[in-house]
Amino acid sequence: MAMYARKKQKVSAQSEAQVEEAKLGTVRDIETQTYSTHPTYPFPIANLPSLQLTASSTPRVIKKGDLDLLYYHPFFKDSTAKTLYTHLLESLPWYKVMYLARGMTINTPRYTTVFGLDETAIWDGDRVLSAISKQPVPSNLYQKPPRPIPGCLQELKECVEHATGERFNFVLVNFYADGTHSISPHSDDESFLGPNPCVASLSLGGSRDFIMKHKTKKDVSGEKFLLQNGDMVVMRGTTMANWLHSVPKRVGKTQSTSARVNVTFRRAINAKGSNNYSHFNVGSGPVHRFVQGSMVAMSE
Ligand SMILES: O=C(O)CCC(=O)C(=O)O
């Protein structure tokens, strides 16, 4: 059990956390708020307020050829999902990652953040050990030190695991500030997720279209879901091998393009997964924090 988890901070008048909160203008009940802390976190991450995280256990099952999908409409009721949206948006560190691909600089068209550790390793306090030898992993195994899943996302992960019967070790979170933010057609079929990976994807906040298209069969009709606050889709079985999914831009359309947080749960089977997720979702740029309605880049 990692030592970061749900550490109760007695926030005294001089504490760093309080100074940070005050600097960022976030008002919290400093007597009751607890935080997850870890040397890899840029600031303490607030745990969830006490919430009845009661989730729906009756999804629509969509099986069509090689498509195997669960659609929870909704997974969390509206008020719970709204609380989760605000909490995650204001509590998590966010990144706007730039990376090189085929000689071009790509600006990720949304904010992202990621936490987790692949199944070849385990936490021992703040240290990362090999799951097999129980010895510290080689210092060059991870390009960046892995970041444990903070309490607020751990609670959600457990809820999703309970409902789906799946086990996840990574939580990757996207923030779409408006209709210009998007994710292009892709599938999460990387070798580091193993064969037939399962990815659960929870929507909080504004509604956005989630579009699915078969990779090769032009005669197979696509799927389109208007994902609303509290909805969840679970892609599993042969879906990732055969289908692409995307959240297209929605600029100048009548559809609501209010801000949306998307929380995805995955299971990485090796260190390549940890490195890939960190590279593309944290990167090497500044950390951002959502303060008083806008995203602010914080100097390190
Ligand atoms: O925002 C979404 O609903 C999809 C996110 C996604 O496809 C991803 O993170 O790989």
Question: In brief, what are we looking at here?
Answer:
With 300 residues, the chain is an alpha+beta fold. It is 17% helix and 31% strand. A hairpin with a 2-residue loop joins strand 3 and strand 4 (67-72).
Describe this structure in words.
This protein is α+β, with helices and mostly antiparallel strands and about 300 residues long. The protein has a single domain (about 45-300), classed as Sandwich (Jelly Rolls), CATH 2.60.120.590. Helices cover about 15% and strands about 30% of the residues. It is built from five helices and 19 strands. The protein has helices spanning about 15-25, 80-90, 150-165, 240, 270-280, and strands spanning about 35, 45, 60-65, 65-70, 100, 105, 110-115, 120-125, 125-130, 170-175, 185, 200-205, 210-215, 225, 230-235, 245, 260-265, 285-290, 295-300. The strands form six sheets. The protein has a seven-stranded antiparallel sheet, with helices on both faces. Strands 11-16-13-14 form a four-stranded antiparallel sheet. The protein has a two-stranded antiparallel sheet with strand order 1-2. The chain is globular, with a radius of gyration of 19 Å. Mean pLDDT is about 90; it is low at about 1-15 and about 20-30. 2-oxoglutaric acid binds near residues 172, 188, 210, 245 and 264. 2-oxoglutaric acid binds near residues 183, 188, 201 and 262.
How is the topology of this model organized?
Layout: H1 16-24, E1 35-36, E2 45-46, E3 60-64, E4 67-72, H2 78-91, E5 98-101, E6 104-107, E7 111-116, E8 121-124, E9 127-130, H3 151-164, E10 170-176, E11 183-186, E12 199-205, E13 208-214, E14 223-227, E15 232-235, H4 239-242, E16 243-247, E17 260-266, H5 271-281, E18 287-291, E19 294-298
Antiparallel strand pairs: 1-2, 3-4, 4-15, 5-6, 7-10, 8-9, 10-17, 11-16, 12-15, 12-17, 13-14, 13-16, 18-19
The structure holds 2-oxoglutaric acid.
